[in-house]
Amino acid sequence: MSFQLDQCLERLASRNPGHTETDIQADVRDVLLNGGLELGDEKVRLESPVPDQRRIDVAVGALVVECKQDLRSTRILESAEVQLAGYLADRQSANRGSYFGVLTDDIVWRCYRMTDLGVETASVLNSDQVRLMNADSGGGLGRSWQPSD
Q1: Which of 52, 125, 130, 38 is nearest to 89 (CA)?
Q2: All structural domains of the chain
Q3: Given its phi and psi angles, is residue 78 left (phi above 0), alpha (psi -120 to 50 degrees) or beta?
Q4: Smallest Cα–Cα separation from 83: which of 46, 112, 61?
Q5: Please, which residues bridge with residue 110 across strands?
Q6: Are 25 and 44 in contact (CB under 8 A)?
Q7: What is the model's pLDDT at position 25?
Q8: Distance (Å, rounded) from C-alpha 123 to C-alpha 93?
Q9: How far apart are CA 59 and CA 57, in angstroms?
């Protein structure tokens, strides 16, 4: 059975109470691997270890993705932002490069970048916008998710 990007994006866009963070991680990984981004299996890592026993949900290159079941709660969002900021700071310190982060509950995709003052929101996309990017690129996400130079 071949990967169906539309079906995976549709599953990601539905707020299913039975959908766990692990399910979200797996779907995000599937989209990164099979969504026309030309990434190899070895480049997309789940549960990548960082200092103090924590693990990044999904990591690929300079992108760190943290998956949560539901980011509508201000308390959960703020806690996740602190968590993501720690991951980005750890990666930048260890590798001396610029890293970008995404927080997602599959409905909302919040994109972040590090600045001298800490983490800042770069953009916020909802699942409909992500599906439109897929449709506009002919059925693959292409490289529209990458920051421009």
Answers
A1: 52
A2: 5-136 (3.90.1570.30)
A3: alpha
A4: 112
A5: 103, 124
A6: no
A7: 87
A8: 24
A9: 7
DSSP H or E segment with residue 130: helix 127-136
Residue 116 in tokens: 């001298």
pLDDT tens, per residue, the chain with 149 residues: 577 777 777 777 777 778 888 888 888 888 888 777 777 777 888 888 887 788 999 998 889 999 999 899 999 999 999 999 999 988 888 888 888 999 998 888 899 998 888 888 998 887 665 555 545 545 444 443 443 33
Smallest CA-to-CA distance from 31 within 4, 62, 69 is with 4
CB 99 within 8 A of CB 91: yes
pLDDT given for residue 64 in this prediction: 92
CA-based R_g, the chain, Å: 15
Copy the structure tokens of residue 135. Answer: 């449709």
Rounded-to-integer distance, Cα 30 and Cα 12, Å: 11
